Amino acid sequence: MTALPAQKVEMIPIDRVTVVNPRARNKKSFKEITDNIARIGLKKPITVTRRVEAGGPYYDLVCGQGRLEAYAALGQTEVPALVVTADPEDCLVASLVENCARRKHSALDLLYDIRGMEERGYSSAEIARKTGLTMEYVSGVARLIGNGEQRLLRSVESGIIPLSVAIEISEVEDHEVQAALARAYERGLLKGRKLLMARKIVENRRRRGKGLKPSDMGVHERVSADSLVRAYREEAERKRSLIKRANATRDRLLVIVEALRRLRRDDRFVILLEDEDLATMPQNLAERLRPQEEG
Length: 295
Hints:
Conserved hypothetical protein from pyrococcus furiosus pfu- 392566-001, ParB domain, Plasmid_RepB, alpha/beta, Plasmid partitioning protein RepB C-terminal domain-containing protein, 59% helix, five-stranded mixed beta sheet, 295 residues
């Protein structure tokens, strides 16, 4: 980026600043920014580039969207800004880089920003160099994006599933996912609570799809009678299915127990077992058969 830093901070009108790469803000973190600025002031000016138009000047935001919006929320009409010289493409890339390089960012932010840089023709190596992320990380995220794996991408960003494991899950068939988790466990990549959380994530991915719905991203629909009834019916259906499978398993076991009980009363079968040195059986099974025989 060929931008020249300004020599001084200027006060510019907030209503003349255009955010070229807008991004959603977490309400809690935005409130913290606003409260902090209200208490101690703005510690770092925003960065903009000047755009000359009739009735101008106007400005394009390079970085500092949160600070800009916080200033506006506090009722200010002007904001301190460093004005740099750069073309629109450089400004947009700088904004994307700033978002990617944040120490805390959501999976959706990363998806949006890296996708934006990819769409502008930047390779994984170039994105890695500009953002400070590793090339392996950028390439991995790009593969998840290409597969539409928003749910897995968010689990990577939250530190639940390692990137390499998420990629492996995204590139195998549904019936092979559990095997992928088992391999991750054997390699020590998923243990304890994280393994349980990973299993829950892949189950949600199987049932609800790879992408994230508004309710998954913190935008919850208003609870209504219909939504409660729908949720109740889905849960009831899930439990009926579990009960049905449990009953089928119990019936199979009862058939096996009854078959073994009858075979033990067949002298020829017992003699055959003794000849093969198989006259004994596991204690638990023997105890399970004993009450039936004695009754």
